[in-house]
Amino acid sequence: MNLLKLTKLPLYLTSIGPVLLAWSFGKFSNFLFFILLLFFVIFFQMSMNFSMDVRDYKYGRDVKFHDSYFPMGPYSIKVEKISPEKVFLISVISFLISISLGFIVLFLTKKLILLIYGAFALFFSYAYLFPPFEFYKRGVGEISTFFNFGPLLFLASITALGVNININYILISIFFGLSTSAIRFIHHLPEENKNSIRFKKFRVIYSSLVLSSFLILSTVYITTLIFLVLSILHILFLNDGLRRDPEKTGEIVALQFLAVVTIIFC
User: Fold this and answer.
1) Which of 108, 130, 173, 190 could bridge 151 with an S-S bond, Cβ 3.0-4.6 Å?
2) Mind giving me the DSSP string for 203-220?
3) Beta bridge partners of 64
4) pTM of the full predicted structure?
5) Which SS3 state, helix, strand or coil, does residue 79 take?
6) Contact indicator for 190, 64 with CB cutoff of 8 Å
7) SS3 133
8) What is the pLDDT of residues 18-73, one digit of tens each?
9) What is the SS3 assignment for 73?
């Protein structure tokens, strides 16, 4: 069993990055809160990923890129041969662990605003997967991704770690939301119907998400301007073979996380 592929672990950097950066803004204090938040987002994303496998299996989707670290479709069920019932159980257990950790953070910090962040996160997660919304099936999954991996995650982490929110942190949260939406978009592009607007206009949509995210970040931290340049190069080498090439997902995930590391150390 390949745990990296089964859990889609490389994609977890999109949720680890905001928590890690928030901790650095808190001067690396409150280590307990950092660990609680870290495992909260890891188990939350794990729950979402396994739920997606069950939904994809239910709707008869095939597994794509099973040889890469960014497989798509019900990989856990069709490749690893785990029953749908067990995958669903793993999803539920991961969700319950995540929620428990969230309530522990809420209890320890006594900041009720975190309850509001959490409620919105649950709503967008539900809207992403389940009726009547099912954003991921309607071509608007990036709405949930933007909020859950951007403003809600980063600003909630900042708050839990005792850091006061300012305009720069809001802009950074938007960077996370837009860049992770770009990751979600490019990762799921191979599933798009070639006649859909999203596929026909993928260059415009993807480029807008990527460039706007790194442009916003570079206005806050000039040292990250290099990543705006790298993102331009990344976009210039886009091609129509993306339906068969999952590595572009890895590139943009790496750019996002390296930008986080650069802010922390510079």
Assistant:
1) 173
2) HHHHHHHHHHHHHHHHHH
3) 72
4) 0.95
5) coil
6) yes
7) coil
8) 999 999 999 999 999 999 999 999 999 999 999 999 999 998 888 888 777 788 88
9) coil
